[in-house]
Every structure is written in C-alpha cells, then in structure tokens.
Amino acid sequence: MSEAKQNASDARRLVVVSNRLGNIRDMSQAGGLAVGVADALAQRGGLWLGASDEYYDSAAGDEPLIRVERLGKIEMAALALPREEYSLYYNGYANSTLWPLFHYRLDLVKHQREFLQAYRQINARFAKALAGLLSGNNDLIWIHDYHLIPLAAELRRLGVGNRIGFFLHISFPPPDLFVATPDHEELIDDLLQYDVVGLQTETDLANFRRSVETTNSISFDIKGATEAKGRAVLSRSFPIGIDVDSFARMANDAAEDVQIDSMRRQILGLKQIIGVDRLDYSKGLPGRMQAFARLLERHPEHERAATYLQIASPTREEVSAYAEIRSQLEATAGSINGKYADLAWTPIRYIHRAVPRSRLAGLLRASQVGLVAPLRDGMNLVAKEYIAAQDPGDPGVLVLSRFAGAAEELAESLIVNPYAVDEVADAIAKALKMPLEERTARHGALLKRISRNDAAEWRRSFLATLAGEG
To answer: What are the pLDDT digits (tens) for 174-195?
Structure first.
C-alpha cells in the first residue's frame, strides 16, 4: 500500500463494537480481543462501543442508555441493557447455542426460542445505539465475535451505509454441523451483510465459504469475493497475533516469587509443564491431566522429576456445562495427586483464578514445556505467548493440539491429537528430553513466524482490507 493510501485509511475514524469493553486502564488480565482492539484504537483513535456492567430490570423506553467516556484518543461508550434480556442473549444464545455449535459440541447445544429472540433484540439495541454515535459514512466499523453476528444486518435496516467488517475470534464449524441449528440460514444472511468477514484460519474460512454455498448457493471467487443481494462481500483469514516484544519483556521481568519458585525447582531438578486456559470444556483440561498421569505411567523416570501447573481462570460460571467441567477437573487433579504425591512432590498444581498477564509471562518463561491442547480453538494465543516468553538461548518446547487454530502457523511445535492421551503423554516426554540444539532450532523458527505475523500485522491487514485498500 502507498503511503498516501495508508494516511487516507488512518484518517478515517475507527469504530469498534464488541460484547464487552476492555479495561484500557489496566490490560493486565485482558484477552486477545481486548489487547488487539485497544492497541488499534490507541494508535489511531476512535470509538469503542460495548455492553456496560450496569443493567436495568425492565424496559426503560426505546432510547439507548449510553455512558461515554474519553480516554486520550479513545471514546469508550458503555451501553446499559435489560438484565434478563442480556442474560438470555449472553448465557443463552451466545454461550449455550453458538459457542458449543462453533466448537463442534452438538451434544451441548441448547435451542430455545427465547434465547434467539433475546440475541436479536440485544443486537438491535446495539445497532440503534451505534447509529446515533456515528459521525458519518466515512467511519470504518469493525465488529467482533459471535455475540454480534446480526449487527450489520440491524445497522443496514437503520440505513447505515458505512463499510462494516466482522472478525470471528473462535472457530467456524463445517456445514454439516452448522446446519444443526435451526436458524443457520438467518445467520448466513446476517454475515453476508458485512463488507468483510474475517476468520482465524484457512480451515475456518473454508468452512464458512462452504456453509454459504450450502445454504445460499453462493460461491466465492479465488480472491474470496462474492456478491449477495447486490452487496460485494469479501471473506479472508486474518490469523490474530500478539505483541511479541512486549510479552517477551514481561517474561524477562518476572515477578520475584516466580523467580524464586523457578530457582527452587532448578535446585530440586524439577521441570515444569504449564497450561494456561479459561475453564472451558473446549480446552480439554481433564484430558491434559490424564495425559500427565499417563506420562508418569509410561515414562516413570519423570516421577518426582516433573510437575504440571494448570491455571484455569473462571468463566461463564452461570452456564451449567462450566460448573460440570470445573467439578470434573478438580476431581481429576485430586485423584492424580492422591495416587502419586508425596511430602516432597505434588504432581499437579491447579489454580482456579485469574492471574495477571505479567505474572503469566514469567510463569511461561519458567516452564520447560507449554501444553496447549484444546479440543477445538479458534487460535489460542497462549501458544504464541509461550513462544514469545522463552529464553532464546535455552527455550522450552510447545506441545500443541492439531485442533488449535495456531497449529496452522506453528508447525515446529510438537503437534498432537488431544483425544489420544498416550500420544500427548509421549509428546510431553519427548519435549522434556529434547536436546538444546533441537529446541533452539524449533524455537527460532517459531519466534520468527509469530514476530512477522504479530498483532500489528493482524490489525493492519484487516483494516486495510476493510478500507478497500488491501
């Protein structure tokens, strides 16, 4: 892109919409969406609209209740919503219908009419609020994630003609699974109201395009373009990245207690395997613990020589499936520790609370194996954070699920099938024994790739495409 075009693109106000606003004053516990969006807005300024943590209990008229706060170049617009309606939208349709569907778990999908009704009502409320905040047709609108799929369609109904892009942060299912939801045709119609639809991986992109073709008999050309009801639609993959240098600095400046724990393990000759995840059934956490137990059975030389640290931060605890996975995980950890632990060694350390990113970075650096083995994941930025955190002179080894989106990029990690417990156990054993020369070669290739495809490149490429310049 020419410098003139880049400057013209940057001059257009960026308007971001997500289910929740990020806390840009303190990004220490923020996920990939919040960090990526906050950096884009901090760089060029703009507006960020998301749901407020304040609710009202009944309909208070049709006018949106919005609180706008300016922080530097960023306007933060918090939209208050009806409490019960928001719960049906968020805990209901978004996370009891779409989340399991998009993670290939049809057995957990719940279809209730009131879920879908609330989902569309909340999206209509977002659209009405956003329409009143736009400064004109030149604003670039960037909508994020599965909570807000119908938002472009709602905006079009209100006469909004701006360029609107959508980025899905989770995986997209193949058409034979996608059609399991009764409203799949409406969801595809909603997605075709965007100018740009971005997905994490080539697999997700192919699934989306095949679903469009299955439901609407519309095909995309070799450049990912199609026309739907007179609208040009572009679909591409934009793998999300991280700020590699920033995360590496955090890892290098590890907290004192992390450094002390690392030194203690070095003295005892203990190697650490680490997993960092939200407590979610898509992450396959009980299976990882079972794989660690199989490591001790199949490779007994690692008994009292390795420990597994699993950090599982709370999420969506109002949804029954999440309470069930927590109980299962705690029972699995207790059973394995009960069988193997002694006074000097605890095989599994399990932490069920949020841990600041700065502390996580130090823990990742201090771990000889990063175990990232979800059953299905859109990308999984922990895999990239583990690579960025490592000491290039003595790096650890990433063991990565083939069903994480990151596996498309990170071929030099040890790729495993998370459903095959023995395979994961053997990969961990290989990682623990891998010679320095091989570890540094693998890590060097991985670090080079995540540095090239970082968060800044993700933002630049998506926004350039949305502006019609990429």
So the answer is: 999 999 999 999 999 999 999 9
Going across the sheet that includes 348-351, the strands are 348-351, 306-313, 271-278, 369-372, 397-401, 414-416
Q: State the amino acid at position 186 in one-letter form.
A: E
Residues of the chain with CATH 3.40.50.2000: 3-241+455-466, 245-452
The owner of tokens 């992450």 is: 283
CATH of domain 245-452: 3.40.50.2000
Q: Mean pLDDT across the chain, nearest whole number? A: 91
Q: What is the pLDDT at residue 137?
A: 86
CATH topology of domain 3-241+455-466: Rossmann fold (3.40.50)
Out of 103, 169, 184, 443, which one is annotated catalytic? 169
Cβ–Cβ < 8 Å for 235, 202: no
Judge whether 144 counts as a catalytic residue.
Answer: no
Which CA distances in Å does 281 have to 103, 291, 320, 390?
A: 10, 16, 11, 28
For residue 142, the Cα-to-chain-centroid distance in whole angstroms is 17
Among residues 190, 377, 426, 454, the one annotated as catalytic is 377
pTM: 0.92
Q: Could you confirm whether 426 is annotated as catalytic?
A: no
CA pair distance 63, 193, nearest whole angstrom: 25
Quote the CA–CA distance of 287 and 420 in Å, as a whole number: 9
Phi, psi (degrees; rounded to nearest 5) at 196 = -135, 130
pLDDT digits (tens, 9 = 90+) for 86-95: 999 999 999 9
Find the helix or strand (DSSP H, E) in which 141 lies: strand 140-144
The residue count of the chain comes to: 470
How far is Cα 167 from Cα 196, in angstroms, rounded to an integer?
A: 8
Neighbour count for residue 1 (Cβ, 10 Å)? 12
Q: Note whether 6 and 21 are within 8 A (CB).
A: no
